[in-house]
Each structure stands twice: as structure tokens, then as C-alpha cells.
Fold each of these.
Amino acid sequence: MRFRHPDGSTVHLAYCTNVHPAETLDGVLAQLRDHCEPVRRRLGRDRLGIGLWLAHDAAHALVTDPSALRRLRTELDRRGLEVVTLNGFPYQGFGAEEVKYRVYRPDWADPERLDHTTSLARVLAGLLPDDVTDGTISTLPLAWRTAYDDARAEKSRTALVTLAERLDALAELTGRSIRVGLEPEPGCVVETTGDAIAPLTAIGHDRIGICVDTCHLATSFEDPHTAVDALTTAGIPIVKSQLSAALHAEHPHLPEVRDALAAFAEPRFLHQTRTVTGTGRHGTDDLGEAVAGGALPDTAPWRSHFHVPLHAAPAAPLTSTLPVLRTALARLVGGPHPLTRHLEVETYTWQALPPELRPRARAQLTEGIAAELTLARDLLTDLGLKELP
């Protein structure tokens, strides 16, 4: 979906396909047929933006076989879909029964991460619509925090500098400008937007910036205005933003609140949980650790890294951090000029919701994704952007 900002520029809105994980090119093509095109039709749109997630094997097939890339581009066009952004965070196995810590491997100290991201950039340059010259990729925020020492930090910095040089060369060759954004996430080396400033300043290249995920922002109790002001002051480009909402518990000391939270503790994904007290920010690596008791102070609200559907906050006594998303979006695109032009709804946890909240059929998932995009569209038009055909 495209929107005209009051300054005349185009802002793109997509939804991320990591909710339909596939490891191969055939699986990606099936996603387009079974999920993406039905969402477009449900919205009554001639064109729908999608943020593709391409696992390693799919990306490798596309970058090594020009006919495969042409096939994917043809299918996108035929189904009324367009791609200006990729989710390059998960490397592979995002559809596994247990993902947890595996999603952070390989990290930026591992050459495989550089090679994979380079492949993604080359693929994206070939998928951009004919009238679009700029693409973006979100990526791992360097590494999970443990076992990350100075030597690995230097390897990561060198890899990202090399990536920037490759992106420069790609732009010169194709005329397509691809930028990559580190996506701060609780528990990682870059947990907050503030944590991103020093390593990105050390890289010192405008092709490497930040992806602001509003679920992660909220989980870490970051104020959107403070975060964005610090990034702009430091000259860190916000290459894209993922629109997502976290799980919020206002009174975690109450037994009924703990019971409600426990229903969201599940074995597939990691749901880092945070609180802020007078002594600072405290956290656990997963929601189950928090609700078990004793690992996290319960005198202040808790937030958990669980991407809940934007349009459907959980029932009381829980809620979502949609207000943080609203504030962040207003700051990012509600001013005289957009600070980013690529927005991506990213709720990948539909099938990890408590059983009674999960879509029971493909059509229900289509309805849910369409409802999320409708909410995001309404937020954008309320900010003065005009939806384009």
C-alpha cells in the first residue's frame, strides 16, 4: 500500500510474510498464492506491499539463478503484490516448532550473516517495482548479548562496513539503493535504540542504519520521542519501521494477571519480559521465567515481547502497547517530512497466541492481517497521509 505524504514523498506500508514461514522458493511462491493475494483481495486493493522474509535456501536460489528471480518477480506482478523491503533477521528455521534463541544465529560476527544479507540485497534490487529505486532490509541487532566480546564486536563492525561497501557497488551497478537497518531487540547486544548509536556511529555509513520495531521499543519502555530525537541528533538513519504491539500487564503482582500472562507463555518463540522500577530496567529472557515468580520485580507494569495483533488487544486484565505504536508512528511520519518511508506490519505470532485466540482457518488469518493493515492505514490517513491507488 502506498501513501502520499504532505511533503509529496511516497510512504510504503507492507505486511511481513514471516507469519507464513517457508524455507524454499516454492514455499515463498505458495505464500503469495495462499496468503498474500487473498489479503490484497480482502482489502479490495489492486496492489499490496509485502515485506518478504526469505530464508537462506530461498535467498540462495534466487541469487544464483536469474530465472528463479524472474519467476518470483513475475508472480508478484501477476498477483498484484510489490516488495520494497525484506525482513532479513531470521536466517532459517523460523517455522520450526521451537525457535527461541536459534533466531539469533548466525550473528554479525559470523561470515554467514554478511553473505546472506548481501544475497538479500541483490535479490531486493531485482524485485523493486519499476518506479521505486530505494529498498530496505531489517537485520539482527549484531548478536544475542551472551558470549559477545570485543573480538566479536570488531568482526561485526568489519562485516557491516564491508556490507556498506557492497551496497555502494550494488547501487552503482543497478541504480537501486538498498539500505540495511539493525533492529534493536531486548536481550541482544543492541537492546534499545540508544544502544545502536555507538556501533552505527563507528560504522559511519548512511546505508547502515536502524529499524525501529515498535513492539521492541515498547517492551524496553523506551519513549518514542526521546528515542527518535536521539537517533536524529546522532545522524543515524531510520531506514524502516516495523509496526507491532507488545503485551502489557499493568498490575503483574495480581494472581489473575499472572494467570492471564501465563496463557501467552509458549514453547516456540522467545518472549523477553521487562519492567522499569526506581532502580532501572529489569528483565527476563522469556515470559515463563517472569510469571513463575521471583525473577522480576512486580511493583511496576510488565511488558513482554509478544507481537499481539494490532487491532485486537488481549482481554482484561491485559492490554497491548498500541498507544506506543501510535506515538512512534506520529513521530516517524507525522511531521513535515517522514523520517522513514518504509513501514511494515509484523505480527508473526498468530499461531503462538493462546489456543482460543488463534485463527482456526486460513480465511481467519487473512481477515486478521487485513484488519491490522486497515488499522495501520487509518492511523496514517489520520496523520494527513493520502492513500494512493
Amino acid sequence: MISERTRLAVLEEEFLPVRAKILEIAASLDRIQRAEGEGSRDPNWLQIQSALETLLEDQAGRAERVQMLFSRPYNDQWRETHKHSTS
């Protein structure tokens, strides 16, 4: 029987990598904020804000929801749209 790891065990293992990623994101956001010009309504910035809000939700499935924020909706005509051949 495979025993499940406890939440504290997973937290212990993940803490430093998650901390590093959060610091990297914070630094990126600081660089964006310090840059000249307007961009608060840019679609990329709005996607980033939505993704950060999703991360703060207290429910499972955040990774999938964030991925979907940055994904295009499925188009069953994609071959025609992007002129891909079937061969």
C-alpha cells in the first residue's frame, strides 16, 4: 500500500522552490511597474492579473484554470485556420 504524504510533508518539500518562484514573479511585476508608459489595459497584463487572482483562490485545480487563461479556445477548424496539412 502506498501511503499518502501529509500536507506538511509536501509543504516542507515545496516551500523553497515555491518561494523562489514567487520572488521571481514579484521582481518581474516590479520591473513592469517601473517601466515607462501605459499598459494597465493591455490584454497580457490583464491575463497576468487574472492568473494571480486565480492563484489566491482556495480550491483545487488552480493550475488548470491558469493554463486555460493563457490558452486559446478550441477551434475544430484549426487546420484550415492555420493552414496545416493532414499529411
Amino acid sequence: MLIIFSTSYDTTVDLLLHYLRSAPVFRYNTDRWEDYQIEIGPSGFRLQDPAGRLVNSSDITKALWRKPAKNRDLFPEIELPEETAYCETEVWYAMREMVNILWKERKIVLIEPLGDLRAGKFVQLDAASRYFSVPDYQFRLGFGSSFPEGARVITKSLTLEPVASASHSVLFATLVDDCELSPSCPWLVQEYVHADADITVVFVRGRIFAYELDRTPFLDRTVDWRELPVDDTSDNWQVHQLPDAVMTGITAFMEELGLHFGRLDFLCRKGTYYFLEVNPNGQWAWLDAERKNGLLSAIIEEILPGTPCNPIPVSR
């Protein structure tokens, strides 16, 4: 059986389950923890879902860490009763240990749980500089700018933590005047690349699926496509052919970071690819929702209970 650690809001898992409907799959939604029964003991663990389906750890052949989250993280504006918050935290710890048990048994596939904590943005940028062009960058608090006066720069959030809790506003990549940034705030500042296209690449254990988005239609509104409504961009991504050198670089970069999966973001300007970041558990479903270009099929092949298991490294 395949077990997926997720939330009830994860539409990517909904899509996967649509195509996995004939396969034995157990979905554990961490935001609905009160609806499950859990037992962990010397012989392993077992779970029962709200429909009464039971799974033992010994029945699990593969496990996928999607994007599980606590309610206090999903809905920070809602104040949970103290007892509920305590219980949720205890259950979250138990869930993490279930994942660790499966990791030790070499059953975690494709996505490394919390991989972004080990391979964060600055580790990525250091590694990427050996394979790609990387825009100059600086994270600073208090110190002055390292960019030449008058240089065009963007600033963006490291965490996408909401800036204003009432509106859930986040700081996407924004073109700014560097000298106007307050030294009392933390800033990630990066050289601005006036690119022709956004390139996003999904890496699935050695297989590479690349897509491009023309930046011309939205550059008068924003420099970051993520700030736009989903309907404005989701249908405009087209399959992209990467140069062999970039594909070789992606494979070497992901091997250096020890990742089996990730969504890599680049900017492309006149044939030069500028690395921005890799999300070790990035969203991808909108790129192949109808299973037409091989991406969805590649992921299903990796997580199907009946296909060979290629576990992520244990040593990490």
C-alpha cells in the first residue's frame, strides 16, 4: 500500500488519487487528525481513517510526503483552544515519527520530508553557481547594500510568511529602489534580470520536464508570475526544450543536493538560464493535469505500490 501524508486541502493529492483510484492508497490528512485513530508500539504503527479503513505499517510499501501541515499553520488567524493546540502538537510529533520509521525502512519515495530545511535557498544558490548563471544576491539586516548605486534589484521573501495577517499578503519578487529599503528590516535582494520567459523544471528522479511562460503579458503588472491569479497563467505554460548543457547541470545539481524531486525555477534571457531556486516539494499539478506530457505519469510510476521502490537516501 501507498500512504500519502497530506492535508484535506491538497488538490495535487486529489489529482493523484483520481489517477490512482484502482491502487491501494491510504491518505492521512494532518489537518483532520481528530478523525483518525493512531497506535504506535514496538511492532510498528497502525492508522484508521474516518471511513474505517485500517493500515498497518507492515502493509506499507511506499510513502509520499506531500505537504502536511498543522491547523495552527494553515489558519494562523484562528485561535485554537489550548487543549486542542496541545493535542494537535502531540499528534504531529507522532506523525513525524511514523514518517521516520518509514524512512528508516527505506519506504519514503521521491520527496524528502522537510527537505527545504536541509537544502535552503543559500545552500541552493551556492551549489547552483557551479552549474548555472546565478544573479548576484545579498541577504542583509542592518548592513548597507552591496549593489552599485542605481542598480535595478528585486526583493523577495525567504519564507512567504504573510506580511499582513488580515489579508494574508506575502512579499513576492518585487522590483525596488535598493536605497529605499529600511536597514532595520531583513531583506533578500537580488540582481534584476529582464528576462524573456520564466522556465520551471520538474525533476523526477533523473527525469526532467521543462515548461516556459512568456513574461511579456504581465511585466507591466508584476515581475513575479506567482502574484497573478492562477487562471491568468495556468493555461499559458508551454513545454520547453532545454539545452543539453542545462539538463546536464540540473542532473548534477540535484545529485549534489541529494534530492530525488524538486521544481526548479529559472529566468531565460536571450538563451542564458539564470537559476532562482529549487523547491524540494514544489507544486506541479497544473503543468500536466490531463496527463498529456509525461510528468504526471512519471510521478505515478514512482509512487505506485506495485512498481519498484526507489527510496530517498536514509543518511540525510
Amino acid sequence: MKNRVTSAQVAIKADVSQSAVSRTFTPGASVAPGTRKRVMDAARELGYRPNAIARSLISGQSKMIGLIAAYLDNQFYPIVLERLAKALQARGYHTLLFISEPGDQDHELEKLLAYQVDAVVMASATLSSALARECLDAAIPVVLFNRDVPNSPANSVTSDNFAGGRQVADYLIESGHKQLAYIAGAENSSTNRDREAGFLAGLEAAGVSLAHRAVGGYTHEGAAEATHAFMRSDNPPDAIFVANDHMAFAVLDTLRQGLGLRVPEDVSVIGFDDVPQAAWKAYGLTTVAQPTDAMIEATVSLLFDQLEVGHAETTRQCLPVSLVERDTARRPQG
């Protein structure tokens, strides 16, 4: 293998000091135009690339933000990760992505921190309060995206999942539904907990009991199995609220193709997230829209408040949601 070209070799080739080479490749550093040209010409001729790892050791900043995510089969998160990475790149930072299994986030975070990242965003993942405190003590900002851990020192950005669940309950009741079902995501996730709590609060306020409940685990297979079980029961539901769009697509496929039922004439279905596929004609899914761009903007703002300003106070931001009416739920009359 060819030996890596060093900055010292570039300095010799360009007939400048090694510090001049370093300044040339440091954004914002002052370098005379003539010197910059000689350095860049020499670097191109030799095939030199600056060593970002070595630079981070000198500056104390890696300019890397660690991202930990799970549930990437959920269409919501690939979109979030792409937009978040672009927003961070626009601020001069790059991302290092780790994929975790549900329930294994602390282990992945421990590995991620070994790469000397400047901050961490955990999307669709949570962490223990002990590890969050360890990051705080090490001055490594952590933001939970679309998750919240009560009493954790980590910052969090979520949508108003409780209000979204309440809106779904109100909508279905006003549409005349009597037998309502809920398909939960992961039992231990704050998104599922709050969406279900809002849904149940809406039912209770209307004097309606939940007819069916199952856990889909945020998986296509789990949601399909739950739908089959609901519809085989003695009192099948006339409406199903699903904890996210990914599972709602499985519910729709099962009802229409698997069971030959009509949506919404026989059963109404409402999801949560409003991923792009929800608007496709094949689905036309009525769903609760999360303010994705606003959540990303808030996450980036929290990170840089801590990285650049040194703001240390724990912040929890909860942004409003909206119900998007399409074709899978009967609409209120009048």
C-alpha cells in the first residue's frame, strides 16, 4: 500500500513552513493568497488529505455528532436522519451513525463515545439516566429525538404525542365509532405511552371504553397479527388507532387484501407520523402529522446552544401535532 502523504512533505514541496500547511487546511485561518496557492498545488500533486483525527486531537473538537437510531424499517426515521445530517453538515459538523437494537442503546452509546464525538443525538432510542449523567459530566451534549425520559438530565425534543392521541379519539367518536381498538408500539417507549394515554383520555371523556388492545412492537408483522386477532373476535372493532404509520400500512394491507374488508366503510384506520407514503394513493392514510422539520431545527438549536454557547440547563421541547384527514377514516358529519 502507498504510504500516506504527510503535511511535512507538503511543506517541503511548497517551500513553506508546516504551520502554513496547517493554516491552509484550517477553516477561517489567515493565509496569504500566494502561500495558499503553493500549498494547494503541492497537496494536489502529492495526493495529500488533511488528517481530521489528528486535527481533533489538537483542537479538542472532532466536529462529529454521534447518531444512535433503532427501528429504521419505520419510514419516519430514515427521513429524519437524512435531514438532520444535512442540517448538521450546514453547521460544519458531520455525523457518525450507530444502529442499535431496541433495549441495547446504552451499550451502543458506550461504543460511540470512544470515537470522541462532540455531541450525541438519540433517535428512536433512549438511554439510562446514569449514562446521561456520565455524558453531562463529560460535557458531551445529548438530545433525545422523539423520545423523552422523565427525570433524565438529557435534553429532549418530541411532538405532543398525548395531544395527538386525544385528537384521534375525539375524531373517531365524532365520526360515530363505537368499537375502538389500539395497536401499541413498544411498551417502554415514551411515544407509545403518551399516544395511548391521550387516546384513552379522549375515550374516557366521552364515556367510551377501549374494545381491543394489542402490542405490535412497531413492526409490520406484529400489526398484521394484531389485526387478524381483532377481526376474529366476537365484537370486531369498527376503528383502529395505530401507534405509527409503519404499522398502519400493515393494518390496511391485512384488512383489504388479507380479509377482504373495506376501509373506511367497514373499519376506519388512523396512524401517527405522516410519513410520505401515507399520502400515496394506495394508502391515503388518515394520520397525525409530526412537525419533522421543526423538531430537527429544535434539536440542532439545542445541540449548538450547548456546543457553542455552553448552555447547560436541561431542556424539553414538545411541539404541536395536527390530524391529517385522508381516506382511511370516516369523517364526522355536520
